[in-house]
What does this fold into?
Amino acid sequence: LAKTTQPISMDSYEGQEVNITCSHNNIATNDYITWYQQFPSQGPRFIIQGYKTKVTNEVASLFIPADRKSSTLSLPRVSLSDTAVYYCLVGYFDSARQLTFGSGTQLTVLP
Amino acid sequence: EAGVVQSPRYKIIEKKQPVAFWCNPISGHNTLYWYLQNLGQGPELLIRYENEEAVDDSQLPKDRFSAERLKGVDSTLKIQPAELGDSAVYLCASSLPPGTSGRGADTQYFGPGTRLTVL
It folds into this structure.
């Protein structure tokens, strides 16, 4: 299983851009990179997924360098409601390599 | 569209008692997952079903934990007997059949979880 490493916590202020980097040195050729968000007392929620280069949706961007050994989740202009735990997962849907949640990054957005 | 439904939301039991959790996945999602989440940690996979077949139960402590998904829809996770260390949140998630979404790893939709406290 591909192991991921993320910062334990990050603080930011409202309106700032937040970048959370995830390290996954042993990512396999077929593996995708997926990010989930979790609020207290809720299950995780899918944010974004990518394989290489850059992916953007309505809530975030995901930057993946050519070697794919790391990835960066970018949240533009965060608000207080973005305070949550963010998980980086690496894997593929086949049963040989399951998606594994790490401990995640606790993002705290301050006013 | 209704999301993943779990019940109960909270459960308090004494150690050595049995407990069961129920999950109803999103309609059309034939893949169902049960996770355990301890405080401050990420979810840990217990078991994954494809329809009614458990395709990955390697992390399920089979001496006390059991799960079933008889008709390939809703599922029940049971602990008997419960121990103090089983206090955690039990999450259920579902996803479309592998590869359906066109993504490399199918999006999992999580329920709110059941918070179990064993006294």
In short: Chain A touches chain B through 26 residues (CB under 8 Å). Strands of chain A lie at 9-13, 18-23, 32-38, 45-50, 53-56, 61-64, 70-75, 84-91, 105-110. The longest strand of chain A covers residues 84-91.
